[in-house]
Write a structure and sequence with these properties.
The chain is built from seven helices and 13 strands. By secondary structure, the chain is α+β, with helices and mostly antiparallel strands. The protein binds uracil (URA).
Length: about 250
């Protein structure tokens, strides 16, 4: 992998800053100043930047903006999987999705080859908040909002934790909803229990980390440790998200 890419994936330095540091001979590869941004680096090279060794992580964690039409699995006999979307350099490295989004659900999906992290991200004990926008067949009523806030019972009798949902358009056909658990088809089943139907579903954030606006459907970006700390934070960002979606709430 190119030196500038290697460093931008593992550190907080931008590519332009990395170029400057190369010019200033502040980046060492195996003890020698690197002369160009495009020198090839492998995991066996020791890289130092401004006097500090760069972490040689054996794990890779990516954030995918999942498009509809892909199943959240590493392989499937008949369907296209989210790992089919990975750029070639991330293939064959054991990356697996952290939990599932339905085939027709879009948005925020983490893939990693760090088993402990995958476990942490999907553990029901963690209650990491997950934020979705949903387009509905019918208007989202005050009664539906109340049922969801109290902890709705699904049609099969399953009781859900209390959850927050709010309309984000004037017709009430689009909502922001935040869940602290991840039951099978949960958003769709919760809305079905209110007599509604989800027509389109998109996960837009997990923990405090939102899907970057410039990450196109099907694209991935590397998550650094600082990004993962954001994901694992359980602060409530419902109101800031509502605002950013163009809706203020009292
Ligand atoms: N809830 C659903 O119904 N589907 C998803 O993909 C995620 C949450």
């Amino acid at each position: 992998m190119r030196l500038d890419r290697y460093l931008s994936e593992r550190t907080e330095y931008s590519r332009s800053r990395i170029k400057e540091l190369i010019g200033a001979k502040k980046i060492l590869v195996n003890g020698m100043p690197a002369l160009k941004a495009n020198v090839n680096i492998t995991e066996s090279d020791a890289v130092e930047i401004a006097g500090k060794p760069v972490r040689q992580s054996k794990y890779i964690t990516l954030l995918l903006n999942k498009p509809a039409g892909y199943v959240s699995a590493t392989e499937d006999k008949t369907e296209k999987t989210v790992t089919d979307l990975l750029p070639p350099e991330y293939r064959g490295q054991g990356l697996a999705p952290a939990g599932r989004l339905d085939k027709d659900t879009e948005g925020f999906l983490i893939l990693s080859n760090d088993g402990d992290l995958l476990h942490e991200l999907t553990s029901p004990k963690k209650h990491i908040p997950k934020y979705y926008t949903a387009e509905l067949a019918r208007e989202f009523t005050e009664e539906a909002k109340r049922l969801i806030a109290e902890g709705i019972t699904l049609k099969d009798g399953t009781k859900c934790l209390p959850a927050r949902a709010e309309a984000i358009d004037d017709e009430g056909r689009k909502i922001l909803i935040c869940l602290h658990e991840g039951k099978y088809h949960q958003v769709k089943r919760m809305l079905a229990a209110t007599g509604n139907h989800v027509e389109k579903l998109r996960r837009i954030a997990m923990g405090n980390k939102t899907l970057p606006e410039n990450l196109a459907p099907g694209e991935v970006t590397v998550l650094l440790n600082k990004d993962l700390s954001e994901v694992l934070k359980a602060e409530d960002i419902f109101l800031p998200l509502l605002k950013s979606l163009g809706k203020c709430s009292s």
